[in-house]
Amino acid sequence: MSFFPQLLLIFGFTFVGEILSAVIPVPIPASVYGLVLLFLALRTGLIKLKQVEKAGNFMISLLSLLFIPPVVNLLGCWDTVQEILLPVAVIIILSTALVFVLSGRLSQRLLDRKEHRHD
After folding, report:
1. Were both Cys, which of 17, 61, 62, 116 would link to 30 (CB 3.0–4.6 Å)?
2. Contact, 2 vs 51, CB < 8 A?
3. What is the DSSP letter of 51?
4. pLDDT digits (tens, 9 = 90+) for 59-97
């Protein structure tokens, strides 16, 4: 499948997510609905990975560009940011370390459980 139909397929799931977000009175972002639907379609085999892989890889490669506008905006209000820089930096470092540790522990447990089942 070529790039453009793959992109349309991903956008189709995003659009369905927008509809679900408008219809279902739960405060879940539309993008989450779309991602969950796409995930379920991939897991059930309704959609094959090769049908969205090129467009997905392209969109992931552009992901870093999405961080440029917020960073430029933060630089524009540096006086305000400077006052809270140390607490925010500490929170970011601690939460990142916590995520690393918890992810590592969970991965180890899952791998141990998988090995234990095969024995």
Report:
1. 17
2. no
3. G
4. 999 999 988 998 888 888 888 888 899 999 999 999 999
